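Notebook p. 47: complex prediction with NAP.
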Amino acid sequence: MLGGTGRTGQYIIEQALKHGLRVTALARNPDKLNKWADNANLEILKGDVSHFPDVYNAVQGNDAIVSALGRDGRNLDAITKGTENIIAAVQKSEIKKTICLSSFGAGSTHPYSDWILKLIVHLSGLSSAFQAKAHQELLLYKSKINFTLVMAGTLADQTHANGCFAYSTNNLPRINGLPDKIERVAVAKFMLEQLDSTHWVRNTVCLLAER
Ligand SMILES: NC(=O)c1ccc[n+]([C@@H]2O[C@H](COP(=O)([O-])OP(=O)(O)OC[C@H]3O[C@@H](n4cnc5c(N)ncnc54)[C@H](OP(=O)(O)O)[C@@H]3O)[C@@H](O)[C@H]2O)c1
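Predicted complex, structure tokens below:
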């Protein structure tokens, strides 16, 4: 698990442990995962995804990588160097699947996002992060690894939405305005479901609120 200390990553760890999965979490600040310190199924390793040996070491003995990595302020290393290191580590190991979380509006989903989202991304200084995510998508497609790239709409801990719906970029409706918020817990559930599914392998999937 990469990004397990983050707002979405914590839901992923919680659900994975509830399902009895064995999880290795690579974290810069392992203390953030103290609430699970007694769980024998969670191994916590200290490290940084921009440092290849840390990623390589963390993936050994695991079947899959689940990543909810995000930027650290203006620092985009987790997305840029992190993706390069993930791909290199997968190529040198027994990892069968890599599930990464990204943002609706980046990369191949950019044409389907409304001008208002594009403006907000621009005004809030997120353009470089969205460019990094577009590059991440290119790197994943260029690689030969079994990835699923999950591009999610705006995330929240609680919403009024019923849940979320998975769209391929071939049948994605054009979203007018901002996408409705979706719950992080639903995104975590979807990402973990991909561990047992081949449906979205080597694909970008867009998660949006059900309307
Ligand atoms: N927020 C939204 O509405 C939204 C919507 C759609 C998609 N997304 C995307 O979903 C992903 C997760 O979002 P989030 O809100 O859960 O993110 P978040 O709370 O900011 O968590 C980001 C995670 O990345 C880790 N990280 C950053 N740099 C790292 C590095 N160099 N090495 C190791 N770990 C590093 C952080 O670790 P530390 O705890 O050490 O900082 C943290 O665990 C992001 O890519 C985000 O852009 C977000």
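Notes: The chain has a mean pLDDT of 95. The pocket of NAP is lined by residues 3, 5-9, 28-29, 32, 48-50, 68-70, 72, 77-78, 101-103, 152, 154-155 (CB under 6 Å).
Next step: compare against the earlier run before touching the bench.
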